[in-house]
């Protein structure tokens, strides 16, 4: 764009406005998280009467937050690893070989990505119930069950994004490696994976973020022992007294891991999302 | 860390390629030997590809997709088929425990759940229509904000690296955290929104209830736009950076106004990115469950009930699993039609996903 005077004014006004709408909720979260409890009753005050880190200490005892944290980590990390490993193989096949059924496979991947979790929630719930009845493996309320349901959204997305990444890696690389005597699998592991590493990390972080914020499956498929943060955080508000300051402090704590991860890989995420989408 | 796809891509890719290549070779072949072999291979073409190939190589791609296919079958295909089946079962809190024995009720669930004149069916169509309206408004607003921000931050403005990162935070934040914050902000008496409207700006005499009645719909829209516009921004920024500057310079020399440049250069050149981004965004927003669930709990106000939360409510609040199943089937049909269009747009010319 050519920077005329009008454009500069528009830009200043526009950026101020956008910054304001992004920052307002972030400010409310942060400022509330350092307020004493008496400040969060009554009308919202822009500044705390005094700054206290007490909410950050209390969050661990009001609600078993550490327990929920560990639950979330177990479920989300496992689902992410499984999805990405399966997706690497599938996406590599899609991006390299013109095999019969490739189109069917990719259509299946693309279309299941479009369906809402609610379509899979009830059937999976019933399948899990039945498995428990007949085989005795508990899936409803267990980590395993939740991990499987989380793969319903992370697997198709990972396949889709990774095949975009792989397609942008020149085929010559593996051909050279294969002439040097490496097998197909060796070429994938020793040549393609190292080159695609930024992409794979970006996809993993993306799956992690999505699963970390997931509410639907967690609300049905967890019990007191396996409750994840998404549902656990509600406990601050379901007391007779809503501990808004603690709720906001907990929000900060559960957001930090994903925010940091996102910032670290956002450059590759842009490339990955647009490669997955456009190529 | 600023988003800089433009400068980043070529050097980094080449470097990692070289690293991989040198790590791999370990001095087994000199570069010239390698090039020679590569050239021979190129000439030989087909021969090299098929030499030593045969059955094993033909089966290789199938071996690669096998684990993902099995998983897709388990978590998507079978559940979807079962979902259609249970729409014909009398499934409620009494029969759910032993659902294989649940009575087959034929179209009864469809009549209850999808009869436009019935009490539940009318809710279904209202929710479906409401979800379409909600999707159109939210996607439109998210696109407009994302486009605006992307255009502004493609220019060389001070602090753009910082602003790019800042603008992405709503998207990186866990969805329920964003929704919790907004639920707090929209509190009737005490929230910051009413504080701004009533006390700070004096626009209203009394703070309205935001999370009840018709306002609840607009709150859902606001929270959705807030959480998703950065995605539009992210995708459009990447697309805009591929437009060379001299195109704009030439247009400016010809006296084209900024608006004219935007409509005749920017929009056509990012058309593909726009189409794909709008489709993804529409799906995510149409299928939205997290935001209303965190804002309103397991039952949204009737004026703001969207389709996913309605099916959830019927199934898990009222234990009308069969009716929930029937609603799911209709939703599935709608989405299959939509996905046929989507696939046609994303995968043209009968090709596989990527080539």
Can you give a write-up of this model?
The complex is a heterodimer of chains A (279) and B (355). Chain A is mainly alpha-helical. Chain A has helices at 5-33, 37-40, 54-62, 65-96, 102-114, 117-134, 143-167, 172-179, 184-212, 216-221, 229-232, 235-238, 244-278. The longest helix of chain A is centred in the last third of the chain and has 35 residues, at 244-278. Chain A is globular, with a radius of gyration of 23 Å. Helix content of chain B is 72%, strand content 0%. Chain B is globular. Chain B has 16 helices and no strands. Chain B has helices spanning 5-25, 31-44, 46-50, 55-86, 108-114, 119-154, 160-172, 175-185, 192-200, 215-240, 245-253, 258-269, 271-286, 290-296, 307-317, 321-346.
Please specify the SSE layout and strand pairing.
The complex is a heterodimer of chains A (279) and B (355).
Chain A: H1 5-33, H2 37-40, H3 54-62, H4 65-96, H5 102-114, H6 117-134, H7 143-167, H8 172-179, H9 184-212, H10 216-221, H11 229-232, H12 235-238, H13 244-278
Helix pairs in contact in A: 1-13, 3-13, 4-7, 4-9, 5-7, 6-7, 7-9, 7-13, 8-9, 9-13
Chain B: H1 5-25, H2 31-44, H3 46-50, H4 55-86, H5 108-114, H6 119-154, H7 160-172, H8 175-185, H9 192-200, H10 215-240, H11 245-253, H12 258-269, H13 271-286, H14 290-296, H15 307-317, H16 321-346
Helix pairs in contact in B: 4-16, 5-6, 5-16, 6-10, 6-13, 7-10, 8-14, 10-13, 15-16
